[in-house]
Amino acid sequence: MTTQAPHEAREPRETTVHTILETAREQVLHRGEALTEAQLIEILELPDDAIPEALQLAHEVRLKHCGEDVEVEGIISIKTGGCPEDCHFCSQSGLFDSPVRGVWLDIPELVKAAKETAATGATEFCIVAAVRGPDIKLMNQIKFAIDRINEAVDINIACSLGMLTQRQVDQLADWGVHRYNHNLETARSYFPEVVTTHSYEERLETCAMVKAAGMELCCGALIGMGESVAQRAELAAQLAALEPHEVPLNFLNPRPGTPLENQGIMDGKDALRAIAAFRLAMPRTVLRYAGGRELTLGDLGTREGLLGGINAVIVGNYLTTLGRPANADLNLLVELNMPIKEFQKSL
What we know:
The protein has 347 residues and is of the alpha/beta class. It has helices at 13-30, 37-44, 51-66, 107-119, 136-152, 166-174, 200-212, 229-242, 268-281, 293-296, 298-306, 326-335, and strands at residues 71-80, 103-104, 124-129, 156-160, 179-181, 216-218, 221-223, 246-251, 286-289, 312-314.
């Protein structure tokens, strides 16, 4: 057996970290090329003292490739709870002993919520339903809601209604839906650990139809569900390959009664590493703060993420959990001198 000569010893950690970040700077910032899955693992495994530099690089990438505007969105559920799917993180599943019960929101309440969302400066209002996919009744309600909202307020309308048929995709596009949300949630290799009532491929089919119909695709991630660092990188790379217009970045908020209720809160430093990695995986994509950031990151972490690659936020509450007050996020954007994207009707 031979021993390693002193001059062949591994480089000091500082040199390795510097090389990783300088390579990323040249590749993503200057050439506009996304990091590979292997490179994303390196970012996700950076030591704590390298996180600020990684976030600074991600912020520079965001400014160069996306601009300085921050997009603000509000979401509301037209149908909450009672979903037949078994997504292990979701308290809206009718298969779990969760405190969330099925509730329908009437159209006047929906219009009122759209007006309130627009009043915050938001440019996007997303109508969400906890379903596997919409039936005829729900599609008719969505059409009626879209017409009433358009009569009352100028705001882009998005929808998140589960898996769609081609006919439903075409209808939503014809009705002027600006963006459709359908999250991958986790990496293909980890998906069976989180969902068993439908497949990863079914989600991808809906995403492909949405893009082909000309709607913007919003396709997000939920991290902190017990996936490995490698699977986190895998998810970022798979989202990048899908080329969505927007990626909402959620952090697990363990809900009572769900299979993941005892998973625990993701470490804030790991969340910040993920923010930097997802930006370096998708330099031109809208990367939106979504659910769970209040618990995972708190006020300081929220600020760091906005200076680390995030360029969109959901304001107010989420579907079944409380978010930060809208004014808190809007005031923070003003404090950070981040202009809110102006409304542009694009139906």
